[in-house]
């Protein structure tokens, strides 16, 4: 069999395994080093009690004759779809527009099947899945640079007509959050270009400023042009449990007037068999008042980490953005190569980060610091960063 030739166009490896490889090599050369990871955005704190109870109870129910269930609805359990529509979106979307999944990354990959080899527009820097997933589908890429000069909000006029536009806010990796005005301009431009927006809101619960939008559907007209993906990973620590959702509004149509929602349903039923019923029970518990309050506690914990990391960097005179409404800090090391700075931080501080250039050409000379970590490790890592100044 011939290899799918689109794989030839992919960069050699996915970013985070490469970071892991360099970490492992350093550890082998320096077995005594106590490495702390502020690299991959991976949650570290235990599940919160109310959500844990719901997961345990769901698993126990499956062990009884009366409570056992097999395959469920591919689109997700009705109660969870209803809770997402009512609690997360305050009724701005309908339950039948919500599709529960095994995570946002998996959804992004499957969504691309709907559009095939179109033009895909990505923010630069971007979460690598948009780029790699598009390449695998044979899409051609258009980059929208997000730089300090444009306040990390891209110039939208470059969007070609009839393209798939990926937009992530709060942003991974820059931590920038689009204002309501900026989002309205994005939606207007996507509609003007008769394109479709994939809005990745995986960090929406990290938005603390009430004036900043958490969902693209807060903007008028978004239901006619946007799919939104979201995740339980970062707000309630489900990175390993695996649960997410997407919204495909009924008003969203292809150029021939056919329904995107109907095709997305076709993908869900054909290529996906529904998210774990246990995970869905945990996700559902996170929407009741106790679950919401636990979630706010967890998000607050990671955001305090973000504050500590950012203060440590700023004390060294490093220019940073993010870390206020997003769990990432985007730190600038002018004139330097990202991988070289990554290496210096690893060698001097024994701290793993993510090199900005791994997220796209405009990420060059930046380092992403993740705020996910145990407090004592973050405090220790923040202290060690002072070694960079020497
Ligand atoms: N969307 C964005 C913007 C993300 O940053 C991440 C995780 C996901 C989706 C994935 O969500 P799931 O629901 O858990 O699938 N980004 C992390 C982890 C790296 C990765 O490869 O997913 C990060 O460090 O960027």
Q: How would you describe the shape?
A: globular
Strand order of the largest sheet: 2-8-7-6-5-3-4
**Class of secondary structure makeup:** alpha/beta
Our measurement of the CA-to-CA distance between the termini, rounded to an integer number of angstroms, reads: 55 Å
Q: Tell me the helix content.
A: 25-40%
How would you characterize this protein structure?
The protein is of the alpha/beta class and 390 residues long. Helix content is 38%, strand content 15%. The chain is built from twelve helices and 13 strands. The strands form three sheets. Strands 2-8-7-6-5-3-4 form a seven-stranded mixed β-sheet, sandwiched between helices. Strands 9-10-13-12 form a four-stranded antiparallel β-sheet. Strand 3, helix 5 and strand 4 form a beta-alpha-beta unit. Helix 3 packs parallel to helix 9 (277-285), helix 4 (104-115) packs parallel to helix 5 and helix 4 crosses helix 8. The longest helix is centred in the C-terminal third of the chain and has 27 residues, at 289-315. It is globular and about 60 Å long. The mean pLDDT is 97. It binds ligand PGU. Ligand PGU binds at residues 16, 40-41, 103-106, 127, 168, 172, 200, 202, 231, 233, 239, 244.
Question: Gist?
Answer:
This protein has helices at 15-29, 49-62, 78-88, 104-115, 128-136, 180-192, 233-236, 260-271, 277-285, 289-315, 338-349, 375-384; strands at residues 36-37, 98-101, 119-124, 140-145, 163-168, 196-200, 226-231, 244-247, 319-322, 328-332, 351-352, 354-355, 366-370.
């Amino acid at each position: 069999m011939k290899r799918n030739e689109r794989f030839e166009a992919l960069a050699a490896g996915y970013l985070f395994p490469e970071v892991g490889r360099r970490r492992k090599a350093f550890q082998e050369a320096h077995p005594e080093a106590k490495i702390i990871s502020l690299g991959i955005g991976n949650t570290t704190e235990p599940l919160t009690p109310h959500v844990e109870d719901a997961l345990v109870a769901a698993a126990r129910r499956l062990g009884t004759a009366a409570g056992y269930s097999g395959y469920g609805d591919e689109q997700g359990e009705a109660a969870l779809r209803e809770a997402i529509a009512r609690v997360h979106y305050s009724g701005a979307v309908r339950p039948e527009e919500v599709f529960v999944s095994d995570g946002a990354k998996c959804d992004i990959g499957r969504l691309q099947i709907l559009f095939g080899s179109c033009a895909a527009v990505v923010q630069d820097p971007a979460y690598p899945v948009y780029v790699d997933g598009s390449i695998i589908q044979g899409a051609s890429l258009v980059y929208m640079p997000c730089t300090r000069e444009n306040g990390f909000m891209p110039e939208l006029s470059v969007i070609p007509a009839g393209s798939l536009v990926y937009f992530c806010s709060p942003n991974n990796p820059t931590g920038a959050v689009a204002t309501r005005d900026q989002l309205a301009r994005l939606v207007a431009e996507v509609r003007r270009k008769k394109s479709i927006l994939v809005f990745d809101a995986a960090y929406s619960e990290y938005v603390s400023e009430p004036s900043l939008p958490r969902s693209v559907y807060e903007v008028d007209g978004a239901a006619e042009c946007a799919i939104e993906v979201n995740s339980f990973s970062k707000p309630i620590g489900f990175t390993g449990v695996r649960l997410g959702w997407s919204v495909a509004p009924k008003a969203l149509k292809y150029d021939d007037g056919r329904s995107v929602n109907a095709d997305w349903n076709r993908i869900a039923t054909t290529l996906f068999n529904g998210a774990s019923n246990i995970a869905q029970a945990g996700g559902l518990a996170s929407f009741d008042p106790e679950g919401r309050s636990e979630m706010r506690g967890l998000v607050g914990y990671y955001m305090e980490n973000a504050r500590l990391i950012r203060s440590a960097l700023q004390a060294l005179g490093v220019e940073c953005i993010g870390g206020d409404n997003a769990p990432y800090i985007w730190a600038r090391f002018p004139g330097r190569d990202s991988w070289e700075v990554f290496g210096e931080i690893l060698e001097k501080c024994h701290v793993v980060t993510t090199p900005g250039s791994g997220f796209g050409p405009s990420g060059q000379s930046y380092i992403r610091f993740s705020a996910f970590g145990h407090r004592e490790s973050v405090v220790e890592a923040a202290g060690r960063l002072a070694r960079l100044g020497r």
